[in-house]
Amino acid sequence: MTSKAAVILLLFAVTAKADLITNGSFSSTTNGAGQLGYNTNATGWTTTGYNFLFTTASNATSGTVTGVDGALALYGPGNGYANGLVNSPDGGNFIGADGAYEVGAITQTISGLTALSNYTVGFYWAAAQQSNFGCVSPANPGGCTTDQWQVSLGSQTQSTPVASTGVGQGGFSGWMYQTFTATSSSELLSFLAVGTPSGEPPFALLDGVSLNVATPEPGSLMLFAGAALIGFGELTRRKRLTKRRG
């Protein structure tokens, strides 16, 4: 193998990304839409909270999705609120998690993590509200309900900004994309919805979860490439000297 080819392979090994998440789009389910852990499940994920799987934005606002407490819907076009609630940019299924009632994390055990290595978690998220709950005069002047996600990889936890559904009834924050870089101390990835107020159910939405080895900075790659070239150059020089002596 030539020095140049070896360097290319080494650089590829450093920069190549492989998503380690199982079912990050929540497209694989046991029974379609419903409450996770009650009448449906998302392959690879576990939860004990009041967390739901929706197949589309229309499905989420239709009132046909059921859980342990009966039918549940989010405010949106399906119940007369033109608040902009649409499918996430990832498309298809997504999660809606109550952040103030029977709160429970959504978790996945990731295989193949290297302890103390850096990983980047990426995901789409949004703030929504359960329908049939009024909030004309919100206690929080920032909005009817507020939502955020607390994301943990092992013992390290980071939080998204707090998002509001806006003042007045039936709002929606719009979809946002978030990334965190964390050092793996265990193989458990966790998403916990945190919302306010408890009397006006806040729902944090989640979709398009990915987990990749953190990409080195461009400067680090150049340094690595330079070191590799120097190393291979030295190896080539020594081989030439050995041949001459022989």
Characterization of the model:
This protein is α+β, with helices and mostly antiparallel strands and 246 residues long. The protein has two domains: 1-17 and 217-246; 18-214, Jelly Rolls (Sandwich), CATH 2.60.120.260. The protein is 18% helix and 32% strand. It contains three helices and 14 strands. The protein has helices at 3-15, 57-60, 218-245; strands at residues 34-35, 46-47, 51-54, 65-67, 70-72, 94-98, 106-109, 118-129, 146-153, 156-159, 163-164, 176-183, 188-196, 202-213. Strands 1-3-6-14-8-12 form a six-stranded antiparallel sheet. Strands 2, 7, 9, 10, 11 and 13 form a six-stranded antiparallel sheet that branches. Strands 4-5 form a two-stranded antiparallel sheet. Strand 4 and strand 5 form a beta hairpin. Helix 1 packs antiparallel against helix 3. The longest helix is centred in the C-terminal third of the chain and has 28 residues, at 218-245.
As an assembly, this protein is: single chain
Q: Indicate the radius of gyration in whole angstroms.
A: 24 Å
CATH hierarchy, class of the largest domain: Mainly Beta
Distance between the termini: 22 Å
Reported by name, the CATH topology of the largest domain is: Jelly Rolls
List the secondary-structure elements in sequence, H or E: HEEEHEEEEEEEEEEEH
